[in-house]
Design brief:
The complex is a heterodimer of chains A (about 575) and B (about 180).
Chain A lengths: L1 E3 H11 L4 E4 L6 H8 L4 E4 L3 H15 L3 E5 L3 H4 L2 H9 L4 E7 L15 H5 L5 E5 L5 H13 L6 E6 H5 L1 E3 L20 H13 L3 E5 L2 H4 L3 H11 L3 E3 L14 E4 L6 H9 L2 E5 L5 H4 L10 E6 L13 E4 L2 H8 L9 H11 L2 H4 L12 H11 L5 E4 L3 H9 L8 E2 L10 H11 L5 E6 H7 L3 H7 L4 E6 L4 H10 L14 H8 L2 E5 L2 H13 L4 E6 L35
Parallel strand pairs in A: 2-3, 2-4, 4-5, 5-7, 6-7, 9-10, 9-12, 10-11, 12-13, 13-14, 15-16, 15-17, 17-18, 18-20, 19-20
Antiparallel strand pairs in A: 1-8
Helix pairs in contact in A: 1-2, 1-7, 3-5, 3-19, 11-14, 12-15, 17-18, 17-24
Chain B lengths: L1 E8 L4 H11 L3 E9 L5 E9 L2 H13 L3 E6 L5 E12 L5 H10 L3 E6 L2 E8 L1 H11 L4 E6 L3 E4 L15 H10 L1
Antiparallel strand pairs in B: 1-3, 1-4, 2-3, 5-7, 5-8, 5-9, 6-7
Classes of the chains: A alpha/beta (about 575), B alpha+beta (about 180).
C-alpha cells in the first residue's frame, strides 16, 4: 500500500494503540495534521507546546502506557524542552514528534529550523531525525520500544517535511523495530544475590526505601508479598507514593527533605536499607557522609548506572523490580520485626500532637487542612496531580494514597507549571477517574493558558489553587536561611475566580476552614470543571525540613503552635 | 586515568552522543579514538578518561544505555596492550642530524620524511615511550606534532566482542511486550 509519510505516521500511531495526541500545529508539521484529520486519532490542541509534553507525561504516568506529544519545528520544538526534561528525570515514557524543515535545506538556518535533536540529546533517552517516508513507521515503532523498555524515558522523533510529503510503501510486518543488538549482561550475580538474602534474613532494623520503579515494573503485588514475608517497614520516595497502601501499618510514609521525622530517624537508625526502584536522590539522603551510617544497603534497580552513584551499596541486584523481588521472596524466612516497628512508632512521639490536624481550629485556613479535607472527601481515591513547591509537599504528607499511579508530580526536575497540563493528560488516560489538580498560585500562572484546552475539550477536571500570595517554598527558604528577606517571592495574581469565569469555567473562592468541605463537595458534584481558589495562610511553612546539605536526622521540626499571623494581617 | 572500550553503531551523530554524555557526567576525556571494525557497520572506540573507578563505572553503564552503543567496558587494570602513534616534525640541520638518528634508533622510531631543515619521525608504542622520545627531541626543536590518542586491547582470551549486527533484535522487542 502506497501512503504519504504523514499518513504512515498516523497509521503507525493508530496501530501502536495511540488514541490521543497532545499537540500544536505549524508549517513543518502540516502534512501530518492533514493526515490526522482523516485518521481516528484524537488531537488535543494545547495552548503552548510545553503543555503538550506535560499532558503526554501525565497521560503516561496515569495510564502506564506511552504518551504522545506533537509540535512543529523551531519554536514549537524548543517549547517542548522543559516537558521532555521533566519526563526524562522521572523516567516517563513519552514520544515527542516534531516537524522539521525539508531535508534539502537542513543546516541552512531555514525559517523555523532548529537542531532539536542536538538540543534534546542530553534530555532524551534517544532521539532521531527521519528524512525518508519509508523510515517513519519503523522509527516510530522503535521509539515506542525504547520509551517503554528498561528504565523508561522520553524519545523524540524529528520528521522532515519532505519525508511527510513523500510516498512510500507501507507494510506493517516489513517495518519491525530493528534496534542494534546489545551485549546481554549477566546481571544476576549469584554472590550479590546470596549476600542480599543473608542481609535480608539477618537484619534487626530493616527499612525498605520504595521508589517509582515499583510502579514502572508493575511490581506492586510482588512488592507486597516481599514486604509481608519480611515484615519490613516501608518508607517511600515522593514518586514512590502509591506503590504500597498508605493505610498499611507497615507503611511509614514519605522520607527525605520533607519526610516525617520518624521516617527519617528510622532510616538513620536502620541496620539494613532495602532500596527498590529508587536512586538515592539528594532530596531523600541529605548529607551523604552521615546517611544511614550503620546500615548495610541492598539496591534493587534496573539501571546499572545508578548503582553506587550516590550511595555505596553492599549488594546490587540489577534488574526489573518485579523479577528481582519474586526471586528474593521465597528466600526470606518468616521474620518478626515487631520490636523494631514498635520502636519506630515510639519515634513518632509528639509528632501527632504537633500535627496541624490535631490543633484546635483557630479560624485560620492552612493548606494542610485543605489537602486533608480533600483526602477525606475523596476517600483517597482521586488521582491527584500536583505542581512543585509547598503544596506538593503538603499533598505528599496529608493526602494518603492507597493505590499506584494516583499521585502524579514532577519529582526529579521539579517543574513548576506541570500540574494543570499533566492533570489534563491524566484525565484523558483515566476519563472515569476523579482527577484533582493541586497547584500553587505561582505554578498555576505558568501554564494557566491550558484552561482554554479544558474548555475546548469539555473535560471534567477539579482544580484546587493553594493560594498564599507567595512563591511559597522559595519564601520558606528565605525565611529560614536568608533572614526573611523576601526578594522576588511576593506574588501578585489575577482574580482566579474571574479568570476562570472568563474562560467559561465555574470557580469559587474559599477563605475559611468551614467553607472547605462544602466547596470540595460542590466541585465534586459538578459534571464540569470547577476551580477552587483556596486563600491559605501566607507565611506557613512545610515541616519537618532537612535543610539542603544537612544530615537526614537534622530536621527543623514542626513548631508546637502554628503560625497565626500572616503578612496580610500586618 | 581510566580506559574504556566501546563498540558503537558506525553512523552519524554517535560520536556526539558519546562525548556529550561524558560532558554531562562532568568527566574530562583525555583521548578518544574511533575507527571501523572488521564489520563496517560497527566502530570501536577507546576512551581514556580523567576519572576514578566509580566515575568509570558510571560512564560505562551510561554509555551502554545509549541505543547506539552495543557494548561499553572499563578495561582499566586488566592485562592490556596499548598503542599510541605520533608524527613528530623536528628541526634538524647538518650538525645534529646524526645525533638525532641515534636517538630515533634507540626508541625504535623511524624517519618518514626528510627535508633540508627538518625530519618527520613516526613512532608508535605505549604512551610513556612516545612521551620519552618527545622529551629527548624537545632540545632539538619540535616544530609540529600529531598524535592519534591511545587504542587499547585486552590480552589473550579476554575477548570484547558485541553481538553482531546480523542478529535480529528480538530480545529487545519481547522485553517490551512483557512490560505492558
Amino acid at each position: 500500500m502506497k501512503l504519504t509519510g504523514a499518513e504512515i505516521l498516523c497509521e503507525t500511531l493508530t496501530r501502536l494503540g495511540v488514541r490521543e495526541i497532545f499537540g500544536y500545529p505549524g508549517g513543518a508539521i502540516l502534512p501530518v495534521y492533514d493526515a490526522l484529520g482523516k485518521s481516528k486519532l484524537h488531537h488535543i490542541l494545547v495552548r503552548h507546546e510545553q503543555g503538550a509534553t506535560h499532558m503526554a507525561d501525565g497521560y503516561a504516568r496515569a495510564s502506564g502506557g506511552v504518551g504522545v506529544a506533537m509540535a512543529t519545528s523551531g519554536p514549537g520544538a524548543t517549547n517542548m524542552v522543559t516537558g521532555i526534561a521533566t519526563a526524562m528525570l522521572d523516567s516517563s515514557p513519552v514520544v515527542c514528534i516534531t516537524g522539521q524543515v525539508s531535508s534539502k535545506v537542513l543546516g541552512s538556518d531555514a525559517f523555523q529550523e532548529i537542531d532539536i535533536t542536538g538540543i534534546t540529546m542530553p534530555i532524551t533517552k534517544h532521539n532521531v531525525v527521519v528524512t525518508h517516508a519509508g523510515d517513519i513507521a519503523r522509527t516510530l515503532r522503535e521509539a515506542f520500544v525504547i520509551a517503554k523498555s528498561g528504565r523508561p524515558g522520553p524519545v523524540l522523533v524529528d520528521v522532515t517535511k519532505d519525508a511527510q510529503q513523500a510516498t512510500a510503501e507501507f507494510e506493517w510486518d516489513a517495518c519491525m523495530p530493528k534496534l542494534p543488538p546489545k551485549r546481554i549482561r549477566n546481571n544476576h550475580d549469584q554472590a550479590d544475590f546470596d549476600r542480599a538474602v543473608e542481609l535480608l534474613n539477618g537484619a534487626k532494623r530493616p527499612v525498605i526505601l520504595a521508589g517509582r520503579g515499583i510502579m514502572l515494573s508493575n511490581a506492586m503485588q510482588a512488592f507486597e508479598q516481599f514486604v509481608r514475608a519480611g515484615n519490613y517497614p516501608v518508607a517511600m520516595t515522593l514518586l514512590g507514593i502509591g506503590c504500597f497502601p498508605a493505610k498499611d501499618p507497615l507503611n511509614l510514609g514519605m522520607m527525605g527533605m520533607h519526610g516525617e521525622a520518624w521516617v527519617n530517624n528510622a532510616i538513620q537508625e536502620a541496620d539494613l536499607l532495602i532500596a527498590v526502584g529508587m536512586r538515592f536522590d539528594d532530596r531523600v539522603t541529605g548529607d551523604l557522609r552521615t546517611y544511614a551510617k550503620n546500615a548495610r544497603k541492598i539496591h534493587i534497580e534496573i539501571d546499572r548506572a545508578e548503582i553506587n552513584k550516590n550511595v555505596k551499596v553492599d549488594a546490587a541486584l540489577v534488574g526489573d523490580a518485579r523479577e528481582v523481588l519474586e526471586n528474593l521472596t521465597p528466600h526470606i524466612e518468616g521474620l518478626d520485626h515487631s520490636a523494631w516497628i514498635r520502636h519506630i512508632n515510639e519515634l513518632k512521639g509528639d509528632s501527632a500532637v504537633r500535627d496541624i490536624q490535631s490543633l484546635p481550629d483557630t479560624g485560620h485556613l492552612y493548606a494542610a487542612h485543605v489537602i486533608n479535607d480533600l483526602w477525606k472527601e475523596t476517600r483517597g481515591e482521586a488521582i491527584v496531580v500536583t505542581d512543585v513547591g509547598q503544596h506538593q509537599m503538603w499533598e505528599a504528607q496529608y493526602y494518603h494514597h492507597d493505590s499506584p499511579r494516583t499521585l502524579i508530580t514532577s519529582g526529579g526536575l521539579g517543574t513548576m507549571g506541570f500540574a494543570l497540563p499533566a492533570g489534563i493528560g491524566a484525565k484523558f488516560a483515566k476519563p472515569d477517574s476523579e482527577v484533582w489538580v493541586v497547584v500553587g498560585d505561582g505554578g498555576f500562572q505558568m501554564t494557566m493558558s491550558e484552561l482554554a484546552t479544558i474548555v475546548q475539550e469539555k473535560i471534567n477536571l477539579k482544580i484546587a489553587i493553594i493560594n498564599n500570595g507567595f512563591l511559597g517554598m522559595v519564601r520558606q527558604w528565605q525565611e529560614f536561611f536568608y533572614d526573611k528577606r523576601y526578594v522576588a517571592t511576593p506574588l501578585v495574581a489575577p482574580d482566579f475566580v474571574a479568570l476562570a469565569n472568563a474562560f467559561g469555567i465555574r470557580a469559587e473562592r474559599i477563605t475559611k476552614r468551614t467553607e472547605v468541605t462544602p466547596g470540595i463537595r460542590a466541585a465534586r458534584d459538578a459534571a464540569e470543571t470547577v476551580l477552587l481558589d483556596f486563600r491559605v495562610e501566607q507565611e506557613d511553612s512545610v515541616f519537618p525540613m532537612v535543610p539542603a546539605g544537612a544530615s537526614l536526622h537534622d530536621m527543623i521540626r514542626r513548631p508546637h503552635t502554628p503560625l497565626v499571623e500572616t503578612a496580610s494581617d500586618a | 586515568m581510566q580506559t574504556l572500550v566501546a563498540y558503537v553503531e558506525n553512523k552519524p551523530g554517535v560520536l556526539n552522543r558519546v562525548s556529550s554524555l561524558a560532558r554531562r557526567l562532568a568527566i574530562n576525556i583525555d583521548s578518544l579514538t574511533v575507527g571501523p571494525t572488521e564489520n563496517e557497520e560497527i566502530a570501536r572506540m577507546t576512551i581514556v578518561a580523567h576519572t576514578d573507578e566509580r566515575g568509570a563505572h558510571r560512564l560505562e553503564a551510561s554509555l551502554e544505555k545509549l541505543v547506539d552503543v552495543l557494548l561499553a567496558e572499563n578495561i582499566s587494570g586488566r592485562a592490556l596492550l596499548e598503542r599510541d602513534l605520533a608524527l613528530i616534525k623536528v628541526a634538524a640541520d647538518q650538525q645534529n642530524r646524526p645525533h638525532l638518528m641515534e636517538l630515533i634508533k634507540v626508541f625504535r622510531a623511524r624517519v618518514v620524511d626528510v627535508a633540508p631543515e627538518s625530519l618527520i619521525i613516526e613512532v608508535s608504542g605505549a604512551v610513556d615511550k612516545i612521551d620519552g622520545l618527545l622529551e629527548v627531541l624537545r632540545p632539538f626543536g619540535v616544530l609540529e606534532m600529531a598524535r592519534t590518542g591511545r587504542i587499547s586491547m585486552t590480552r589473550g582470551n579476554d575477548l570484547l566482542r558485541p553481538p553482531l549486527l546480523d542478529i535480529e533484535s528480538s530480545a529487545v522487542v519481547t522485553e517490551v511486550s512483557k512490560v505492558k
